[in-house]
Every structure is written in structure tokens, then in C-alpha cells.
Amino acid sequence: MKNKATRLIKKSIAAMGYSVRATGSGVGGVNLLHDASTILNSVSNPTLFDVGANIGQTVHAMLDTFHSPLIYSFEPSPSTIELLRSAVGKRKSVTVENLAVGETNGVLPFHVTDAHSVNDSLLAPKWEAGGRVVDVPVVTVDHYCESNNIDSIDLLKIDAQGYDLQVLNGARRMLTNGKIKLFCCEANFDQMYEGQATLIDLLTFGDALGYRLVGFYAISYSNDRLTYLDMLFQAGN
After folding, report:
1. Percentage of the chain modeled with pLDDT above 70
2. What 8-state DSSP symbol labels residue 70?
3. How many whole angstroms separate alpha carbon 189 and alpha carbon 93?
4. How far apart are CA 189 and CA 235, in angstroms?
């Protein structure tokens, strides 16, 4: 009876254009943070990097998913940093850094868009985004970890609007030494930014450093084609 009722519910939801998938207790390719937590075996006090934190959406999800995490949240945008600080800056387990993360330390132009802060990027947009360009400080993951005595990262989450490969290049020492257990990044299939990384670029990078693909997440379609997705990688055993 239970299975029959479940099938009926799924059919009803499918008729409305939606699909239901159970998260389950193991890795299921549904929820990225759930799968990351499962792989990490619910380790206490995991070290999590949130690169491209925006206004704290992922920080809140990390706090809900992991047991007493230590979160380092990076956001360079002058239009959102105060919102981020207001949202999570008072949490003792969260460090908010008004920094961009890339492949070299220094200062780079940052493109602040008018309408949607989630589209802000170190890469120049290929559409009429409006907004302004400001200089922001940039740090590499390797340098930040060395400067702050961080020996390892359990999860490096990257959402840098096409700049994800540069962030990974700046974490190459930590990645090569297996000091980053998991990393996730985003692949865009719309040509949104000048010089944005492709899906092949990101898959090739992970494979070259001995990281295996765990799964694809947040798969999005628009106008009958794939527009973007997130990927989770795990250090090889």
C-alpha cells in the first residue's frame, strides 16, 4: 500500500512538471552538501571554504548540514559584503573575508552587476550587465591556508561565476598534496563571461590531480538546453 501511494504521489507531481528523488542515507546525487557530509562521515568540526559566498546562502546550508563546521567565507563584492556580515558574521564558527580568491595574490578588477549580485565576477560579462568595475584584493587558497595555519580543507566550495578554474589553480599545492578532501565547482554552458572555464576544463583539472567525480548537482535547463551544473570531486584513495 505504501509503495502504491508513493507511486501515485510521484505521478501526480510529475504531471505538474516536477520530479521526486529521495536523498537517502548515502551518496545519491541529489543534494551536494548532503553527499559531501556523507563522504566525510559526519566528521566533527570540518573545515569548509565558501568561495563566492554572496549573502550567505551556502553558509546557512553548511551550518544546517555539518556538525560544528569551521567556515571561511570569501566575498569580494562591495554590494553584498555587508549583507553577508549581517547574516553570518556574528557566528563564532564563521570567518568572513572581504576577498576574492584566484590563482595569484594581488589586486584585480571586479565586475559588479546592476540587477543580480550572484552574477558578479572577476571576469568581464559578455552581456550588457550594467554596473561598475572596482578593484578588489585577491588571494590564493594556498597562500591563505599557509598564512592562517590551515593544514587541510574538508570541502572547498567554489561559485566564482566562470572563474572557478583560476580558484583551483590557486589551490594547486593543497590539492596536489591531498590536503583538500572534496571540492565543488560550477560549469556554465551559456557564454556569460570572457574566458570562463568549460566543463571539459574542470573535469580535466580534477582528473589530472587525482580527484574523482562524485556527481552532478543543481542541473539547470533553459530554452530546452543545459545552462549550468555543479560538480563534486573527491580526492583519490
Report:
1. 88
2. E
3. 35
4. 25
Residues 79, 120 contacting (CB under 8 angstroms): yes
Backbone φ and ψ of 211, nearest 5°: -95, 140
Minimal CA–CA distance to 153: which of 191, 175, 181, 133?
A: 181
Cβ-in-10-Å burial (0-12, 13-18, 19+) of 173 comes to middle
Tens of pLDDT, residue by residue over 190-229, are 989 999 999 999 999 999 999 999 999 999 999 999 999 9
Q: Residue 153 and residue 74: Cα distance in Å, rounded?
A: 14
Nine-digit cell at 177? 598534496
Tens-place pLDDT, residues 114-129? 877 888 999 998 877 6
Dist CA 91 CA 69 (whole Å): 11
Asked if 54 contacts 80 with a C-beta cutoff of 8 angstroms, the reply is yes
- Other beta carbons within 10 angstroms of residue 19's beta carbon come to 7
- Burial tier of 122 (Cβ tally within 10 Å: 0-12, 13-18, 19+): buried
SS3 153: strand
Q: What distance in Å separates the CA atoms of residue 52 and residue 206, rounded to the nearest whole number?
A: 20
Taking the model in full, what pTM does it have? 0.90
DSSP 11-45: HHHHHTT-------SS--SS-HHHHHHHHTTT-SS
